[in-house]
Amino acid sequence: MKSKARFLGHPIHPMLVVIPLGLFIAAAAFDGLYYWRGDMTFATISYYNIAGGILGGLLAAAFGLLDWLAIPSGTRAKRIGLFHGAINVTMVMLFAAVWIARTALPDYAPTTFVLGIEATAVALALLAGWLGGELVDRLGVGVDEGANLNAPNSLSGCPASPGRA
Fold first, then answer.
1. Cα dihedral sign for 25, 30, 35, 40?
2. How many Å apart are CA 71 and CA 118, to the nearest integer?
3. Residue 6 main-chain phi, psi, to 5 deg
4. SS3 65
5. What is the pTM (predicted TM-score) of this model?
């Protein structure tokens, strides 16, 4: 099932998800470094990574919703897509709660409770990523019809499989 929201021949949603995921994982890592080294710079970097991750997550979610709406009702893909989206929204909301809580803390330093929420949110991101892989790799969501190992370049304007328009 070909994705509805595309840029230069490729689905937009998977292009965008790497940004918030990378920022959220980096935020958790920088908070770990803050606890290990005690350097407030790490806490500040983490705080701004979370802010960027929230914005990136909302943008990725918008394109993910467009793709989900195009999946036929009553299919396994529709159910998995709903679960995938719900987990991702929950994960972004957890990071948003962390970000809001940290605005009141000195130098945006995380508490151990905040670090636990971040770890939970990263675990949810891993689960949601697996479900996203299930959607694409197993169920073919976002994959061009006729995709094959010798398909022409997506910028060529030719279909993935000869004889399909």
1. negative
2. 31
3. -130, 155
4. helix
5. 0.88
Domain count of the chain? 1
Residue 88 host element (H or E): helix 76-103
How far is 46 from 30, CA to CA, in rounded Å?
A: 6
Tell which wins on pLDDT, 162 or 112. 112
Which helix (H) or strand (E) segment holds residue 10: the answer is strand 10-11
pLDDT of residue 163 exceeding 70, the answer is no
**What's the CA gap between 39 and 47, in Å, rounded?**
13
Residue-number span of the structural domain to which 127 is assigned: 6-156
Using CA atoms, how far residue 146 sits from 8, 45, 143, in Å, is 18, 44, 9
Answer yes or no: is 27 within a domain.
yes
Q: Give the Cα-Cα-Cα angle 132, 53, 154 (nearest 5 degrees).
A: 50
Question: For 10, phi and psi rounded to 5 degrees?
Answer: -125, 150
- Residues 102-151 have pLDDT tens digits of 998 777 888 889 999 999 999 999 999 999 999 998 898 888 787 777 87
Q: Is residue 134 part of a domain?
A: yes
Coil, helix or strand for 152? coil
Residue 148 maps to a domain: yes
**28 within some domain:** yes
